[in-house]
Design goal:
single chain, about 200 residues, mainly beta, 11 strands
Length: about 200
C-alpha cells in the first residue's frame, strides 16, 4: 500500500493540550479506540539513515517494523521524502514477533535493528475534515542493550481526511507546526543522551 502524506506536527505539553481541547472540543470526535504502537527502526551501524533524516532536505527514508496493541500483524513500513512530497509504503510481514526481524540490505544500505519507539495513540477528527492523532507516553529503547528513555510530551499531528480537500489548516493552529521525528529523537535520547 502506498500512501501520500501531508501532515502538520506540534509538540504540546499537558497544559497546552488541555487548552487545545477546551478551545475546539465541540468540533472534536473520537475516530478509533486508543492503540499502543510499537515500532522497531532499522539503520546502519553508523546511523546513516538518522544522519540523512536530520540533515538532508530531500531524498531520504526511514525503515521500520510496526505492531499495534502488542499482538497481531507486524508491518514493514518505509517512509520516503523527496521533491514530490512524502510517501509511505506499507507491507504486512509474516513475523510473529520483533525477534523474527533480521538484518536487511535496502537501497545499498546494510540495515540492522536500532531502536524501539513505543507510545499510546489516540485518534480524533474535526468536522469530518481533519484527522488528528495524539501520541502520549513516548518511550525509546536501545534494541541491543535495552537501555530506555521516556519523553514527557504530547505529539499532535493533523492530516486531511480526504486528499482532494481544499482546506486551510491555519485556523486550527495556536502554535507553529514543527519538524519532529520520533526516530531522530530516539537516536538522540538513546545514543547521544540529548534531552528534549
Amino acid at each position: 500500500m502506498i500512501e501520500k502524506r501531508k501532515e502538520y506536527k506540534f509538540l504540546f505539553n499537558n497544559v497546552e493540550l488541555t487548552y487545545f481541547f477546551n478551545q475546539f472540543e465541540p468540533k472534536i470526535d473520537n475516530l478509533y479506540k486508543t492503540r499502543h504502537v510499537k515500532s522497531l527502526y532499522m539503520d546502519t551501524i553508523n546511523k546513516d539513515l538518522y544522519l540523512r533524516s536530520k540533515y538532508d532536505d530531500t531524498s531520504k527514508f526511514k525503515f521500520r517494523y510496526r505492531q499495534y496493541d502488542q499482538e497481531g500483524d507486524i508491518f514493514q513500513e518505509i517512509k520516503f521524502s523527496d521533491f514530490n512530497g512524502k510517501f509511505k509504503f506499507k507491507t504486512k510481514t509474516s513475523f510473529k514477533s520483533f525477534d523474527d526481524v533480521e538484518n536487511i540490505i535496502y537501497k545499498g544500505y546494510y540495515l540492522i535493528p536500532k531502536t524501539y519507539v513505543s507510545y499510546n495513540r489516540k485518534y480524533f477528527k474535526f468536522n469530518n475534515e481533519v484527522r488528528m492523532t495524539i501520541d502520549k507516553n513516548l518511550e525509546f529503547e536501545n534494541f541491543l542493550t535495552g537501555y530506555n528513555q521516556k519523553l514527557d510530551i504530547n505529539v499532535v499531528e493533523l492530516k486531511k481526511l480526504h486528499e482532494n480537500q481544499n482546506l486551510d489548516f491555519a485556523n486550527l493552529f495556536f502554535k507553529n507546526p514543527i519538524k519532529f521525528s520520533k526516530y531522530e529523537k530516539s537516536i538522540e535520547s538513546i545514543f547521544f543522551n540529548l534531552k528534549q
